[in-house]
Write a sequence for this structure.
């Protein structure tokens, strides 16, 4: 049994779903928030802007997303942490 547990720990994460991959590729192509991006989100995915960013926020926590798009995921995580730090008045993201 320990061999099986070890194998699971070192296995690759499951591949991304097509819609998750499309969302990450869209974000890579449209890094800045704009009215045009909002319109494209609605047209391409059928989501409100708020829902798009909720899904994106969850998606960048996925090991599968990190494996498939490491630079993008790291950039988005850094941006999120910088926004949090600014919002809560911390310099390095900690209190």
């Amino acid at each position: 049994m320990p061999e099986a547990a070890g194998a699971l720990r070192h296995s690759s994460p499951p591949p991304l779903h097509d819609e998750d991959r499309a969302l990450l590729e869209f974000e890579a192509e449209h890094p800045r928030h704009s009215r045009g991006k909002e319109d494209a989100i609605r047209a391409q995915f059928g989501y409100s802007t708020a829902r798009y960013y909720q899904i994106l926020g969850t998606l960048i926590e996925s090991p599968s997303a990190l494996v498939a798009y490491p630079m993008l995921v790291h950039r988005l995580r850094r941006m999120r942490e910088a926004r949090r730090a600014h919002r809560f008045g911390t310099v390095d993201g900690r209190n």
Remarks:
- The chain has a mean pLDDT of 88.
- The two ends are 42 Å apart (CA to CA).
